[in-house]
Amino acid sequence: MKTYPLSNGDQMPALGLGTWKSEPGEVYKAIRTAISVGYRHFDCAYIYQNEVEIGAALNDAIMTGEVNREELWITSKLWNTHHHEAEVKECLNITLKSLQLDYLDLYLIHWPVAHRKDVIFPQDASGLISLSDIPLEDTWRGMESVQSAGLTKHIGVSNFSVKKIKQVNLSATQKIEVNQVELHPLLQQKELLQFCKEENIVVTAYSPLGSRDRAAQMKADNEPDLFEIPIIKKIAEKHGYSPAQILVAWAVNRDTVVIPKSTNEGRLKQNQEAANIKLSSDEMDSINSLDKHFRYVTGEFFALPGSDYTVSNLWDE
Ligand code: A2P
Question: From its phi and psi, is residue 163 left (phi > 0), alpha (psi between -120 and 50) or beta?
Answer without folding.
Answer: alpha
